[in-house]
Write a structure and sequence with these properties.
single chain, FAD/NAD(P)-binding domain, 5-stranded parallel sheet, 24% helix
Length: 412
């Protein structure tokens, strides 16, 4: 029997296990998913925990519930991958062989890469919201916050969900307004980017929205060190910024198993063909989601769009056929802007976010590059879609893997 091993039981790995289990003959192929634990986190939901919109119980479920029947689920830490031997070595000593390997190991925050970040202020007035623990502890701190300077700092790009820091800022403006302390609270966005976002047109729009809400953007801020005893963060050049509450998006790296296996780049992301999703170094290895080094967003929507192309290419590889260069970097993101409104952006490697309607031309129901309540409800409704459709590898009507120009205007 031939074998496919999927490393990672998060969004990308779980989705691919479902797609492959439907596409391959069970008596010919054995599919195995490996992850270090049995807790699946709905990562978009972490953003809402600090503001009391979600509770921790709303964002976690057992991974095993979403692994399809007939797919093996192994709970174990992974020691290393041996691509020459086509084996995965588990921490307990077991070895899994494979004919094809799918790497879906995601990305992780590494706060230790920033000097002083995990000093005396850590989890006291310095928090992240990219982990369940960080988001939960920040929620408690926010409930008792009476005013001062709130700084949200992205240490370095790339990060998971590049719009999440912006959403936090907008929601903080809403939250502090509701709590009656917005007039006592200064909100600052310190980013290594030269603007609010990575794409210029969206950056201009979102930057204007931040300015309208009296949220200051401090661009090209390259954090070098945190002096928690003085409540100060400093750049490599020695510029300093004081804070009362520091919300950090720490440095991101790929999985440690990628580092131990020497499969990654300097940040442990796997060099991946930008259109086929095949490893650039090994023909029998494919990569999906945040584990890639691709120049697109590390976001769940990207993993979803990659999934259709990856399924086709795994099937082609099995048959010895030429791979399909079908992935165009497609990403779309709802950006929660507070007060029950949101913005939706849709883009790919080469195309800026454009105004229009999505997914149906002229109909929507979602508007692109514009705030609306419908976009907000799309954002909030996605949690149901995630648990019930996306993780199960189901087709989402009207949502295509490749970016469509239909319903958009204003492109050059």
């Amino acid at each position: 029997m031939k074998k496919i091993v999927i490393l990672g039981g998060g969004t990308a790995g779980t989705m691919m296990s479902a797609k492959l289990s439907r596409a391959l003959e069970v008596d010919e192929w054995e599919i195995t998913v490996v992850d270090q634990d049995n807790t699946h986190i709905y990562q978009p939901g972490l953003l809402f925990i600090p503001f009391g919109v979600y509770e921790p119980r709303d964002v976690k479920k057992p991974r095993g519930r979403f692994i399809p029947p007939g797919v093996k689920f192994v709970i174990s830490e992974i020691d290393r991958v041996d691509p020459q031997g086509k084996t995965v070595h588990l921490s307990g000593g077991d070895v899994l062989s494979y004919d094809f390997l799918i790497i879906a190991t995601g990305t992780r925050i590494v706060p230790t890469e920033t000097e002083g970040l995990q000093g005396d202020g850590w989890q006291k007035n310095i928090f992240d919201f990219y982990t369940l623990e960080g988001a939960t502890r920040l929620a408690d701190h926010m409930r008792h916050f009476k005013g001062g300077r709130v700084v949200l700092n992205v240490v370095e790009m790339p990060i998971k969900c590049p719009v999440a820091p912006l959403e936090f800022l907008f929601l903080a403006d809403w939250f502090f307004t509701e709590e009656g302390v917005r007039d006592k609270t200064e909100i600052v966005y310190a980013t290594p980017l030269d603007g609010a976002f990575t794409k210029p047109k969206a950056s201009a729009l979102l930057g204007d929205m931040l300015e309208q809400r009296n949220i200051k953007v401090q661009p090209i801020w390259n954090t070098g060190e945190i002096h928690s005893e003085r409540n100060v963060m400093a750049t490599w050049d020695g510029d300093e910024m004081e804070y009362d509450l520091l919300v950090t998006v720490p440095y991101h790296q790929g999985s440690e198993v990628i580092a131990r296996s020497e499969l990654g780049d300097h940040a442990d992301f796997v060099p991946t063909h930008p259109n086929t999703l095949q490893s650039q170094d090994w023909e029998d290895i494919f990569v999906i989601g945040d584990a890639t080094n691709l120049n697109t967003s590390k976001a769940g929507s990207v993993a979803h769009f990659e999934g259709d192309i990856l399924l086709e290419n795994v099937l082609r590889a099995i048959q010895g056929r030429e791979l399909w260069e079908g992935f165009d970097g497609h990403a779309n993101c709802f950006i929660e802007t507070g007060f029950n409104k949101a913005v939706l952006i849709d883009f790919n490697y080469d195309t800026e976010p454009l105004p229009g309607y999505y997914p149906l031309p002229g109909v929507g129901p979602f508007s692109l590059l514009g705030e609306s309540e419908m976009n907000h409800w799309g954002k909030m409704g996605f949690r149901w879609v995630y648990w019930n459709l996306l993780l199960r590898g189901s087709e989402l009507p009207g949502i295509e893997a490749q970016m469509s120009w239909a319903g958009k205007w204003g492109g050059s």
